[in-house]
Amino acid sequence: MMMRSVCFGAMALVTLARAAHATPSLDECLSANESSIQLRGQHKLRAAKAQLLVCAEPTCPGEIRDACAHRLDEVAVALTTVVFIVKSVDDELSAVKVTMDGELVADHLDGSAITLDPGPHQFTFESAGHPSVTKSLTLHEGEKGRRETLTISEPPTVAPPVVPPPVVVTTPVERHSNNAGVIGGVVTGGLGVVALGVGFVFGAIASSSWSTAKNECPTFMGCSAQALNDRNNAVTFATTSTVTVIAGGVLAVGGLALFLLFPKHSTTVGVNASGLVGHF
To answer: Which of 23, 120, 154, 207 suits 137 as a labelling partner, its CA being 20 to 30 A distant?
Structure first.
């Protein structure tokens, strides 16, 4: 019964081909016959079927026509038919493009069986708004009405990364508002201290010279040249000591005033969550 149905189907295909195509020439009949044999050997049954429909035309030579019609029945039996069912999470999809080994075999799915060549194939299913799915299937010769169901999941929703609010760790740091003022006070005070030291040294030398001159000539009348020289040195050293001590005192007091009286403020150093350091 099944073979009879297949024969009727093949005859119907021949009738349709006759109506849709122009009458083939003798060369076209011969070429189609040869091509169908080669394609059948390569397991490209759909392409072989198309060639057999040409050489099975009534205008082709009788022997070729009969041979092609016979092989057409064999190819029709050997071809595989598959019903693909593609679903999303909740619904069955019809707007699905199906390719087999990169060749488009269906631009939509309506529940009908698709005629395919037997053998191992890689199928890709694409539908707008859904990720494409690839599936490898081995179709068996003569298998009819095979059903393959697969689910295309919705594309995953990627949540934006959560950025934590910045964390600021504050550490108060007391510092002078201007380093130049601090340095100036220290330098001025240092010079004053040095000047005081020099003044005290000159004062000591002046005192020693004065004592020597007084011992040699107590009345400073008719004194020797050395006694007069010691007296003059004592006066010179005493004057230098006085001037130096006064200058050193002024410098020391000025430096201390700069260091203590120069304005200063607090600065807060902060570290945020990204590790950056800033002043607040």
So the answer is: 154
Strands 97-100 and 119-126 turn out to be antiparallel
Q: Is 227 within a domain?
A: yes
| 156 within a domain of the structure (yes/no) | no
β-bridge mates for residue 133, sequence order: 125
Range with lowest mean pLDDT among 23-37, 110-124, 143-157? 143-157
First vs last C-alpha separation in the chain:
94
pLDDT in tens, 117-135: 999 999 999 999 888 999 9
160, 191, 280 from 198: Cα distances, Å: 75, 11, 47
From 57, 78, 99, the end of a domain falls on 78
* pLDDT tens digits along 221-277: 657 667 667 667 767 867 876 877 687 677 667 767 766 666 555 455 454 545 444
Supply 265's token pair: 């403020």
Q: What is the CATH number of the domain that holds 133?
A: 2.60.40.1120
Between CA 240 and CA 24 the distance in angstroms is 136
The mean pLDDT of the chain is 77
Q: Are residues 86 and 74 in the same domain?
A: no
Number of structural domains the chain divides into: 3
**Cβ-based neighbour number of residue 125 at 10 Å:** 22
pTM higher than 0.85: no
Instruction: For residue 192, give every residue at least 6 positions away whose Cβ sits within 8 Å of its Cβ, in sequence order, or none.
Output: 247, 248, 249, 250, 251, 252, 253, 254, 255
The residue among 60, 52, 63 whose CA lies nearest residue 11 is 52
Range of the domain at 88: 80-151
C-alpha distances (whole Å) from 166 to each of 146, 169, 268, 277 are 60, 10, 16, 12
